[in-house]
User: What shape does this take?
Amino acid sequence: MGADVSDLSLVRRVQRGDKGAFDALVLKYQHKLVKLVMRYVRNPAEAEDIAQEAFIKAYRALPQFRGDSAFYTWLYRIAINTAKNAVVSRDRSPVEYDLDRSNTDESYDMQGRMKDSETPEGLVLTDEIRSTVNAAIDALPEDLRTAIVLRELEGLSYEEIAAAMACPVGTVRSRIFRAREAIDRRLREVFEGGLGRTEELG
Amino acid sequence: MNEELDSQLSAMFDNELPAEECELLARRLSRDPDLKARWGRYAVIGAVIRAERDITLDGTVAGRVSAALSSEPELRPEGARPAARPLPFHWWQPIVGGGLAAGVAAVSILWLRAHALPGGSPPAMPAMVASSGPEAVVPALRPALRNAALAPDSFVVPPAPQQQQQPMMGVPATELADYVVAHSAFSWPVTRGSLLSALMVSEPGTSSTHARSDQPAPGVHGNAIQNPK
Assistant: This one.
């Protein structure tokens, strides 16, 4: 199986003018990208801003993406460069800021405002999501839990998981799907409780 | 929701779905909000399993990116460029084009005639290259070319080819006329008319002014025509 085949099919759709396919790519990689950017910036809100900028840059550069590397590898490089540039400009900005405004309290307030995107609502939802998913995973049968953890935590392919669990690849695919379905059934209740924002997409 | 579809979605999320199935599912995924929401929750499940602690999982980034891109134009394939702007029109373009077409047609006719007519002159190309005046362009139409006053100082006539004695390579007058008409679609009407007139006049039997002889003209010695000057 091609390592990047599904990403590539979505990328090709975006390149042909289907913006909805890009939503799917963003949904898939937003958490990884924010996590990646947080190696450069400590502030989660700032990391989200940089991740957002990286996605927009990626969208605009997508016509030049040939598929020579995996989409995530390409996106990863864009995010790293965006984060580095953000760090450089942030390191410069206090000096420029001080030239115009000597009041350092204002500078402090500005940084405080950047955290506003981390709303209490979002934080509550995040906690709720975590506890729901963790509880659902704990409730999974052993074979399903092992399959989904090997896939998501260790990043193994279906073939590698099949070798590790001594079962056919088709069984691995089925176990992972059933694990996801069991977790998703509970997770959907949380998102449909009025806080889920991913439902707004599309 | 269809269980098989969800199973495919799960495999696609892991990049484990065959390419042909991916194509179909990607299309549906990009249009179906429910499927997209499920896809997003699969990503959330992965993030929680990987214990990505410091990030929010409420889809903030995806929502903001989607909003930001809503005002962006849709992408175009790299090869699909906007139609090229037409070049500006100049009044002299049809004249130049017509002149070129007429010139090519004239050269073609003369070359064909030189090859086609029995006892005709040998290929005229070398002679035309050697000369530069208008008389060089239409030597077959102008017997006076052999006149010393009009002829170039010196030019070489290629040895008489065997094909002069061969059966005609055969371009009858009507075909020649058709040829000119067919190739004069882009030529200037005046030029086209001149060519046709010249063609008709030059046909054996159509004009008594055209003299054709295998005898060398005065001043011809061997294969060279010398200007008597």
Chain A touches chain B through 84 residues (CB under 8 Å). The CA atoms of residues 131 and 187 of chain A lie 10 Å apart. Chain A is about 75% helix and 0% strand. Residues 95-116, 195-202 of chain A have pLDDT under 50 and may be disordered.
